[in-house]
Write a structure and sequence with these properties.
Elements (H helix, E strand, L loop, with lengths): L8 E3 L2 H13 L4 E6 L5 H13 L2 E6 L9 H6 L4 H8 L6 E3 L3 H4 L18 H4 L3 H15 L4 E5 L3 H13 L5 E5 L19 H6 L1 H15 L5 H14 L3 E8 L14 E9 L2 E9 L7
Parallel strand pairs: 1-4, 2-3, 2-5, 3-4, 5-6
Antiparallel strand pairs: 7-8, 8-9
This protein binds adenosine monophosphate.
């Protein structure tokens, strides 16, 4: 058993991480992978703890993947602090941090990219063209570099989770994809590296995102059956807080296609811009508490 304060080993070279993890696999260790873009918060840490609980070895990757940013300003403004992240992870018995430079992941002669199909073009994909191709490409590369038993992803990025499940299944990778619950601030705002970029007024406005999701649950609990009415109330709430809506959707949690009637569990998804910061969130609406 490792001591709580043992430092994770920081690896930046892909060859090193690959040979190290391959060796551990050959001696029968199970490997848990937690891919992140850094600026770590309690949401990321919950994934790390899940991996520590389930796997012998935990690898956290920190890489701000340029391929998944369709907006260059979003990429240049993305918070990065490897020192703080390393410190946070050193409070836990994490084994390895893999933090490659972009040229490690994408050498100049690098050329492939993954098309994830129709799932990559709806919802987030509609507003961030190429985003899921970038996500799938970097993750597939990481899966090969770090042959893992389980990859831990947040349901906070629900569509990403579905896309990755599809990539793993369609490419026959022997990796279990584990979706972990969303960790929230006290007022319900989902933790996100982007929250750091909100000023204090915007931080207050941002509460509307989770509140909109709660409105959907409250309306369903009260017996509301009209999808359009629920969506409209959610939109009104966000707009009253001066949030700019990219989408508000009630979808089938498996296909992510819009639902027409309330006959099953439904996933409510929102993407909202507060000032220049884009926030996404989702919540599974439970039908068992319904009154009718
Ligand atoms: P990111 O660094 O934003 O790419 O996120 C890395 C992983 O952490 C992804 O699988 C996210 O879904 C997950 N994640 C981000 N925010 C949260 C949160 N608030 N709760 C749980 N998981 C999260």
């Amino acid at each position: 058993m490792k001591s709580r304060m043992s430092k994770p080993e920081l690896v930046t070279e892909k060859k090193v991480v690959q040979t190290t993890i391959e060796k551990l696999r050959t001696v029968g260790k199970t490997i848990g992978l937690v891919p992140t873009m850094g600026a770590l918060h309690e949401g990321h840490i919950s994934l790390v703890k899940e991996s520590l609980a389930l796997c012998d070895v935990t690898v956290v990757t920190i890489f701000v993947n340029p391929l998944q940013f369709n907006d260059k300003n979003d990429l240049t403004g993305y918070p990065q602090d490897l020192e703080a992240d390393t410190f946070l992870l050193s409070q836990l018995p994490v084994d390895y941090i893999f933090a490659p430079k972009p040229e490690q992941m994408y050498p100049v002669d690098y050329s492939i990219s993954i098309d994830v199909g129709p799932m990559g073009r709806i919802l987030e994909g509609r507003f961030r063209p190429g985003h899921f191709s970038g996500v799938a490409t970097v993750l597939l590369k990481l899966f090969h570099l770090i042959p893992s038993n389980v990859v831990f992803l947040g349901t906070k990025d629900y569509q990403q989770l579905k896309v990755v499940e599809g990539v793993v299944k369609d490419s026959n990778l022997p990796i279990q994809v584990k979706g972990c619950p969303t960790i929230r601030e006290e007022d319900g705002l989902a933790m996100s590296s982007r929250n750091k970029l909100l000023n204090s007024a915007e931080r207050l406005q941002a509460k509307c995102v989770y509140q909109a999701l709660q409105i959907a649950q409250i309306m369903v609990d009260a017996g509301e059956c009209e999808i359009e009415k629920i969506i409209q109330k959610m939109r009104d709430h966000i707009q009253q807080a001066d949030g700019k809506i990219d989408y508000v959707a009630l979808v089938n949690p498996e296909t992510l296609q819009p639902v027409k009637r309330i006959t099953q569990n439904i996933l409510a998804l929102v993407a909202v811009r507060i000032g220049s910061i884009r926030l996404i969130d989702n919540n599974l609406i439970q039908l068992n508490t319904r009154r009718n």
